[in-house]
Amino acid sequence: MANSGRYKVKFRRRREGKTDYYKRRIMVISGKPRLVVRFSNRYVVAQVIVSAPQGDFTVAEANSRELAKKFGWLGGTGNTPAAYLVGLLVGYRALSKGVKLAILDVGLHRVTKGGRLFAVVKGAVDAGLEVPHDEEILPGDDRLSGEHVAQYASNLRQANPELYKLRFSKYITRGLEPENISKHFEEVKLKIMEKYAKSEAKAEDSQ
Predict the structure, then answer these.
(1) Higher pLDDT residue, 17 or 147?
(2) Alpha carbon of 20 to those of 77, 93, 107, 169: distances in Å?
(3) What share of the chain is helix, strand, coil (3-state, %, to 5)?
(4) Can you give the pTM of this predicted structure?
(5) What is the CATH number of domain 14-206?
(6) CB of 97 within 8 A of CB of 60?
(7) Facing residues of 141 across strands?
(8) What is the 3-state secondary structure (H, E, C) of 13-72?
């Protein structure tokens, strides 16, 4: 069947569930940089990519692994607050490279209202990067800051202390009580904003 005139073997990355070439073609033809968001089992990765005849070039990149290493993040690296902070980082880095607008490349992700994908978008937009989107699809501030995690942790701690310790063992080991994640989120967010505010100030002084 694979050799018949009616059957065409799909490109490898499409077979592997990594690339939707129809959508990719439309975005590449637009000539606009793409905000590419991908998730692994543990991390969130965001890149701003520019397409050229020679191939794709990554202009800016951020991932949730570096949140802990560079900004002291103690929460999970794959949740909604982490996704927002990654978006904030990649947004600032894109702007520092002269990119002011990017279109969202969701790949083969299922688009879910208020999901982590749009937490990344919200972070990038708050950094100043223009990403066309519908406001209604963005997560609320309570989810971005992890208030839902804090509330769940608080209720679980009262109802089942042992399960609380099990579910949030990584938070506790890192020295963060999950009930305080919203406050910690704001602290890390401020660190990121201050870092890039200082970078912008230095750039302006050097001109």
Answers:
(1) 147
(2) 26, 26, 6, 38
(3) 55, 15, 30
(4) 0.84
(5) 3.30.420.100
(6) yes
(7) none
(8) HHHCCCCCHHHHHHHHHHCCCEEEEEECCCCEEEEEEEEECCEEEEEEEEECHHHHHHHC
Whole-angstrom Cα distance, residue 111 to residue 39?
13
- Cα separation, 35 vs 182, whole angstroms: 26
With CA atoms as reference, report the closest residue to 84 among 185, 177, 170: 185
Q: Model confidence over 14-51: pLDDT tens digits?
A: 444 445 544 555 555 556 899 999 999 999 999 999 98
C-beta neighbour count of 129 within 10 angstroms: 25
Calculated CA dihedral for residues 71, 77, 79, 80, nearest 10 degrees = 30
Cα–Cα distance measured from residue 5 to residue 9, given in angstroms and rounded to the nearest whole number: 11
| Overall residue count recorded for the chain in this entry | 207
